[in-house]
Design brief:
The chain is built from 17 helices and 6 strands. It is globular and about 60 Å long. Helix 10 runs antiparallel to helix 11 and helix 11 runs parallel beside helix 14. Helices cover 75% and strands 3% of the residues.
């Protein structure tokens, strides 16, 4: 089926491939389940056992939240490898959805923390198979299209993500008000709808895309990366042992495990990139493009470390220090996160259309510049929270408008970074490493989520005076990173070559 139509003036007019909407639907329901559950996760863990929660301390719950959300994205790296080498992207997406549904069904079973953590593990493993590979399929739909059309397609796909999360973050917290496990069970139902839609429509509208593993499509270089992989693992293990014995980390606690995982992510990612650059059989232009992917990885990790506090520190702020009454009804704290998704739904097509119109006028804003904009908007959003925290520190409750404005600024920042970064990574990646490079992109999200959880663990309701400083630190880091991206844009664009 052709994706080019004739307009009334006889000029070709681009139409997005129908396969995009198949992937849109599958990802929408997966995000319904993920974000719906995530909206109540830290609230459930910090609720007293007498109220049917887990009764964890804020520090432990923040660490567990960070470990879980980091693992969700960290698993995209082995998920990408399995798709590239064994399953192909299409099967990997389906198998991942099945594991996610099983995980949410386990979470719906009332019981011990062991049952709860088992459910989280299933969701993390399933998302690792699904998340990166479904984005890879979107990229392959636009393999022969220019950067602006590709970015517009990813923005539409991103709207599907947020449509699912918007509905999930409304319905799941509402059900959880009556019973936590009903909320978790609803997330399983959402994933089931996604699996049915994908299984029925993918063969018709995706054709052969993603059916054959990448290594079977491409010639092998004859070079082995195994030695480099063993070296990376050895360095990580030695470093962890040294840090444990010197008392720098304590892997017997949830916080210590989270800190150790952060270290593992950083060391493995750097080692992985070095291994690909020097032992991956790449040409010089491809090495430069892979280096750009690493730079984008750093930027997205910083962005998510602030943005993902929506479900950690900002969620706790909403519960404990925000006036959530509308008339006589008090909005569940987790529902406030749905404003982010709502803003994405409204503005995703607008932002995507802006990129296309600017490109039509030969004004093509390159990826690093968009990253700079997103990071600075993130910082401005947290500046709003600094002021809200001052209100809370004075003994009053902050209005909901502060959180809503923060989510608005973060949403616009997200649109200038996340779909654009996904698109750029799919274009910059060497073909034989495509699934793995998409996995690396999500490892950046893993690192950011982990940091967000650790920051959330520092959110002490008993120490209200410290809250403004917690948010202010995020302001300095994100704005500073945005300024660096602005300054480095010419250098980064040069290494991107013909990729826009």
């Amino acid at each position: 089926m052709s994706d080019v139509l004739k307009s009334t003036g006889g000029k070709p007019k681009f139409r997005h491939p129908r396969g995009l909407y198949v992937l849109f639907s599958a990802e929408m329901w997966e995000r319904f389940s993920y974000y719906g559950m995530r909206a109540i996760l830290i609230l459930f863990m910090t609720t007293d056992a007498a109220q049917e929660g887990l009764g964890l301390t804020t520090e432990t719950a923040g660490a567990v939240y960070g470990l879980y959300t980091a693992s969700v994205y960290l698993m995209t790296l082995p998920g990408g490898w399995l798709a590239d080498n064994i399953f192909g992207q299409r099967k990997a997406v389906f198998y991942g959805g099945v594991l996610i549904m099983i995980g949410h069904l386990i979470l719906a079973i009332p019981g011990s923390p062991i049952i709860f953590f088992t459910g989280l593990a299933f969701v993390a493993l399933g998302t690792g198979l699904l998340k990166g590979n479904i984005s890879t399929l979107v990229g392959e739909l636009y393999e022969n299209e220019d950067g602006a059309k590709r970015d517009a397609g990813f923005s539409i796909f991103y709207m599907g993500i947020n449509l699912g999360s918007f509905v999930g973050q409304i319905l799941v917290p509402l059900l959880a008000e009556y019973n936590w496990h009903l909320g978790f069970g609803l997330a399983a139902v959402g994933m089931l709808f996604g699996l049915i839609s994908y299984k029925f429509f993918a063969p018709k509208y995706l054709g052969d895309i993603g059916m054959v593993p990448k290594v079977k499509q491409l010639e092998k270089t004859g070079k082995s990366n195994s030695k480099g992989t063993y070296a990376i693992v050895a360095v990580v293990l030695i470093l962890l042992v040294v840090l444990q014995f010197t008392g720098s980390i304590d892997v017997t606690t949830a916080t210590g495990i989270a800190q150790a995982l952060g270290l593992i992510i950083v060391v493995i990612t750097m080692g992985y990139f070095l291994n690909i650059l020097f032992n991956g059989g790449l040409s010089v232009p491809d090495k430069k493009k892979v280096s750009v992917i690493f730079i984008l990885f750093v930027g997205i990790a910083i962005f998510w470390s602030g943005f993902e506090q929506a479900a950690s520190s900002l969620n706790l702020f909403a519960r404990d220090f925000t006036d959530r009454f509308i008339g006589g009804w008090e909005m569940p704290a987790g529902m406030l996160q749905s404003f982010n998704s709502g803003f994405i739904i409204i503005f995703a097509p607008i932002v995507g259309a802006i990129w296309v119109k600017l490109a039509a006028r030969n004004i093509n804003i390159r990826t690093p510049f968009k990253f700079a904009i997103g990071l600075i908007l993130l910082g401005i959003g947290f500046w709003v929270m600094v002021e809200a925290a001052h209100v809370a520190a004075s003994g009053a409750k902050a209005g909901m408008f502060a959180l809503i404005l923060t989510y608005f600024l973060h949403s616009i920042g997200e649109l200038t970074i996340s779909p654009v970064g996904l698109s750029a990574t799919s274009k910059l990646s060497p073909r034989k490493y495509l699934g793995q490079m998409m996995g690396i992109w999500f490892v950046g999200a893993a690192l950011g989520n982990l940091i967000a959880g650790l920051i959330g663990g520092n959110f002490d309701p008993e120490n209200v005076l410290e809250m403004p400083n917690i948010f202010l630190n995020v302001v300095w880091v994100s704005v500073g990173a945005g300024i660096i991206f602005f300054a480095a844009s010419p250098f980064i664009k040069k290494w991107m070559g013909d990729v826009t």
